[in-house]
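Before we proceed, please read the two lines closing this message. Let me know whether the structure tokens fit the sequence:

…
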Amino acid sequence: MENIKNWFSNPEQIMQFVIKYGGQLLVAIITLIIGLWIISLLIKGMKRLFRTRDMDPGLQSFLLSVSSIALKIMLIISVISMLGVQMTSFIAVLGAAGLAIGMALSGSLQNFAGGVMILMFKPFKVGDYITAQGESGTVNEIQIFHTILKTPDNKTIILPNGPLSTGSLVNYSKEPQRRVDFTFGIGYNDDIDKAKNLILSIIEKDSRILKEPAPFIGVINLGDSSVDLVVRVWAEASNYWGIFFDLQETVKKEFDRQGISIPYPQTDVHLYQSK
């Protein structure tokens, strides 16, 4: 502390230090500012190039993030070398620090490797609706370490790429067509053929339902309170939910008009009076 006070109390030493290192420090600061500006321009140029080539949005985000980090690291190393720091010793220290950080952040490195695997093999892409790690949502962004999902009720879910790339996953958007399944229960006293024909007529009137593969209607279960009819139709993936909701409502209304009951569980209670 005494040496520091003596150094600041000596104007000549301060001037010598400024003359010796001030120019290097100023050049280093200017280089850092200009370098960050140039990196920003390069990243914007890469973004425009990727868009013109119609590159996958997830791959765009990943490459832009990696490129930005790599360029900034190179710039910082260059600026440090301009200040007179010996790069051989600095790189050795940086390597040792990198090894320690790598061991401490092994999970993050797994997520990085998982992100690379996802972008290489493309089990899903931005815009797909998936279920993975117990979560469901539309893929909003594929980052270096995480994948971000948006749920139908606008919640944000962040999933680490490591488990995401190695675990089981359901991609509902991979195929252009999906099968929509329904189960309708009718009473035991109702006419099965009549109910099947009513459902088939409703299906034929819906232009969103595909003719091939052909719709299927059959008895799937003789339950305690109802005869259960299974209905399977095919549609474009984008029409899945519209058909799912509309067909159930239409069938219910048509059953009511035609006098076909949709039973619900009932319990008969018999009371016995003992004498």
